């Protein structure tokens, strides 16, 4: 998620792009969940399109909203895949 935030924030460096490619490979190799893979693909496609169009300088409110929604879907897919429920995330104190 950190590299996604970097790209979303405007980091167009070759290092950030290479890091994203590595993370894509890890998700594809490790996750058996199609939901996780699909949500991650949607997230990375959004980022790649922005980088290719060089739309990384100014982030519109709409784009920020789309990015946060895609990131949230990915996060929830991971939690479901790992069996992390909202109740399990509650602080027992």
Summarize the structure.
This protein is mainly α.
Number of helices: 4
Helix content: 55-70%
How many strand elements? 0
Gyration radius, in Å = 14 Å
Structural class: mainly alpha
Proportion of residues in extended strands: under 5%
Q: How far is it from the N-terminal to the C-terminal residue, by CA?
A: 28 Å
Shape call: globular
Helices and strands, in order, run as: HHHH
What is the typical, i.e. mean, pLDDT? 85
What are the low-pLDDT stretches, counting only 5+ consecutive residues below 50?
none
| Largest pleated sheet | none
Commentary on this structure:
- By secondary structure, this protein is an all-alpha fold.
- Helix 1 packs across helix 2.
Topology:
Elements lengths: L1 H7 L5 H17 L3 H19 L8 H22 L11
Q: What distinguishing features does this structure have?
A:
mainly alpha; 4 helices; single chain; 93 residues
């Amino acid at each position: 998620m950190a590299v996604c935030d970097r790209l979303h924030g405007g980091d167009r460096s070759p290092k950030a792009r290479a890091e994203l490619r590595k993370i894509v490979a890890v998700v594809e190799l490790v996750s058996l969940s199609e939901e996780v893979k699909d949500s991650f693909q949607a997230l990375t496609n959004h980022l790649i399109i922005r980088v290719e169009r060089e739309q990384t300088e100014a982030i519109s409110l709409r784009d920020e909203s789309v990015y946060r929604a895609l990131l949230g879907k990915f996060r929830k897919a991971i939690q479901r895949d790992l069996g992390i429920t909202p109740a399990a995330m509650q602080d027992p104190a």
